[in-house]
Design the sequence.
């Protein structure tokens, strides 16, 4: 039995089974791969937060997401889980290249969410890299970026690789995440983000998460969102 054959047939929310999962409150009730389930329980994640409950049934069946929930409400797992599941179901492997890109507005936040990815994704065999510039030598990075399956990055460093790294190829990208999307869509990143987007395939899944709901129709158009689910959650705490 290959490692994949063991649990791969479960794990798909299609449009028909979608409604079964909208009332779920715990991660184990979702049709996630064993590898993701184990990563979640290793980290003691059991009960979903409200934004996770609201968004995962949609994101896991491949829909584009505009998720808004205040800081500290668990948005990171709301996008990391579907990234892992999407690539896992696609049987993404070392030769398949970049399958997921997660963009964060700051190096610090990118580093934090990379740590969560390493924890929750520890049983998966994807290669993941943190591309944030600064202290790291870009030339060393260039030798490795082509082998990454999941990239966590800041906009500037990602664009630098798109511009400078030989054969850097995002043409098969399956899923794009903008964390703190309101900050990334802000004027300061406009040119950078537009250049990035123009180099990504349009048929990918796109998820935007932030503390406030993104309302600009223009922004949504430039990201080529397909009939996105708007999910706003204001959790009592
Ligand atoms: P946000 O991005 O919305 O500000 P985070 O994703 O950083 O929030 O999560 C905030 C905190 O909540 C983190 O410490 C994280 O480990 C914790 N957390 C997230 N989801 C859960 C969960 N389902 N159960 C318990 N703790 C969680
Ligand atoms: Mg966050």
Sequence:
């Amino acid at each position: 039995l290959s490692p994949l054959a063991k649990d791969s047939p479960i794990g798909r929310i299609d449009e028909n089974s979608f409604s079964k999962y909208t009332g779920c409150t715990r991660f184990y009730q979702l049709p996630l791969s064993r590898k993701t389930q184990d990563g979640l329980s290793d980290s003691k994640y059991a009960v979903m937060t409200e934004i996770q409950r609201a968004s995962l049934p949609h994101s896991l069946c491949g829909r584009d997401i505009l998720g808004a929930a205040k800081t500290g409400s668990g948005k990171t797992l709301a996008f990391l889980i579907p990234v892992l599941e999407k690539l896992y179901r696609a049987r993404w492997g070392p030769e398949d290249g970049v399958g997921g890109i997660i963009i964060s507005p700051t190096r610090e936040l990118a580093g934090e969410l990379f740590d969560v990815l390493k924890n929750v994704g520890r049983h998966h065999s994807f290669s993941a890299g943190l591309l944030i510039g600064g202290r790291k030598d870009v030339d060393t990075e260039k030798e490795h970026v082509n082998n990454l399956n999941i990239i966590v990055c800041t906009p500037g460093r990602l664009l630098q690789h798109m511009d400078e790294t030989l054969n850097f190829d995002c043409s098969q990208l399956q899923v794009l995440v903008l964390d703190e999307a309101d900050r990334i869509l802000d004027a300061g990143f406009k040119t950078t983000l537009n250049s990035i987007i123009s180099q990504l395939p349009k048929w990918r899944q796109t998820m935007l998460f932030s503390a406030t709901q993104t309302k600009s129709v223009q922004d949504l158009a430039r990201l080529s969102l397909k009939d996105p689910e708007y999910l706003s959650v204001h959790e009592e705490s």
